[in-house]
Amino acid sequence: GQNGIRIQTQASRIVPTDATAVGFYCTNAWNRWIGNSASGGFSGFHFPAVPYVLGDSYSQNRDYHPDEKELLEFDSNTAHSSGRLWSRGACMYVGGELWEDNKGSQQYRYISGRATARKGGRFIMTNTKDLRQKDVQCWENEQPVLRVSSMLMTKFFCHY
């Protein structure tokens, strides 16, 4: 369902997101993804909300908030055969949340489904292609939608 799974760091799985392995796990939207191809897994490209810098990097970057950033560039990326591991799965997924209760502790908590709303800017994805039953999921206002105020797809091709 919409809530996904909730897991935390444990001895056998230091990074809880390993339970939802993806081709490109994008914790900081302020980057460029150009010409990549993802296949299989929980999702091809996953952009969870990350409210603060994680792990050892937190002490040097206390004022940086990844979930407040716009997607710098996402162009000519493809994904296929992804998102089939859960009922809300998609090749491109903007949702979920990863955080540390005690910042810098490397003791992570993760929600794969609907979580705290992103504080950040827009996600513009251009020339994007995917092959899957469900193509894109972006959770905003508690509903999965393709076009929302913070996300825009241009030249998007989806083949079922």
From TrEMBL:
This is CEMIP beta-helix domain-containing protein. PANTHER family: G8 DOMAIN-CONTAINING PROTEIN DDB_G0286311-RELATED, G8 DOMAIN-CONTAINING PROTEIN DDB_G0288475-RELATED. InterPro entries: CEMIP_beta-hel_dom (IPR055401), G8_domain-comF-like (IPR052334). Residues 17-83 form the CEMIP beta-helix domain. Pfam families: CEMIP_beta-hel. It comes from Symbiodinium pilosum (Dinoflagellate). It comes from the Eukaryota.
